[in-house]
């Protein structure tokens, strides 16, 4: 039996604007078991980004419960608009988090270069974000 690592019950998010309250997501229920891979799909404006932003703790929920069963869950989320630094080249953007933690080892740099190659970006490591397409910028992110 697989362990339930994420349980979302009756999750809702409301926003206020000039015309009143907007219901971004309403009564979402979801459970994810260990080892499962899920995809959130739907039409534009249905609340996908809002749900992921709440899970990433970038936004607060209006109501409902979110329970993670483990402290070491790794959640990856790429926003629609990337947050690359325009004054850093692609390689330096990718290494920035490691640089902020202290030093970057040769193994770290080799791993990042391997990932960039895997995503078809190795020939762009010295380029700046403005020279990449939107999809390429998201892959860098």
UniProtKB/TrEMBL annotation:
<keyword id="KW-0813">Transport</keyword>
<dbReference type="Pfam" id="PF00005">
    <property type="entry name" value="ABC_tran"/>
</dbReference>
<feature type="domain" description="ABC transporter">
    <location>
        <begin position="26"/>
        <end position="140"/>
    </location>
</feature>
<keyword id="KW-0547">Nucleotide-binding</keyword>
<dbReference type="GO" id="GO:0016887">
    <property type="term" value="F:ATP hydrolysis activity"/>
</dbReference>
<dbReference type="InterPro" id="IPR003439">
    <property type="entry name" value="ABC_transporter-like_ATP-bd"/>
</dbReference>
<keyword id="KW-0067">ATP-binding</keyword>
<dbReference type="InterPro" id="IPR050166">
    <property type="entry name" value="ABC_transporter_ATP-bind"/>
</dbReference>
<dbReference type="InterPro" id="IPR027417">
    <property type="entry name" value="P-loop_NTPase"/>
</dbReference>
<protein>
    <submittedName>
        <fullName>ATP-binding cassette domain-containing protein</fullName>
    </submittedName>
</protein>
<dbReference type="GO" id="GO:0005524">
    <property type="term" value="F:ATP binding"/>
</dbReference>
């Amino acid at each position: 039996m697989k362990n339930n690592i994420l349980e979302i019950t009756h999750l809702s998010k409301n926003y206020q604007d000039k015309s009143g309250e907007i219901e971004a997501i309403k009564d979402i229920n979801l459970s994810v078991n260990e080892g499962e891979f899920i995809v959130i799909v739907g039409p534009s404006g249905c609340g996908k980004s809002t749900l992921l932003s709440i899970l990433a703790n970038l936004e607060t929920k209006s109501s409902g419960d979110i329970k993670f069963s483990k402290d070491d869950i790794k959640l990856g989320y790429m926003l629609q608009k990337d947050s690359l630094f325009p004054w850093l080249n692609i390689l330096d953007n990718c290494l920035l988090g490691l640089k902020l933690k202290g030093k970057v080892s040769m193994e770290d740099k080799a791993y990042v270069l391997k990932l960039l190659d895997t995503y078809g970006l190795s020939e762009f490591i010295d380029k700046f974000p403005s020279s990449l397409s939107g999809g390429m910028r998201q892959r860098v992110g």
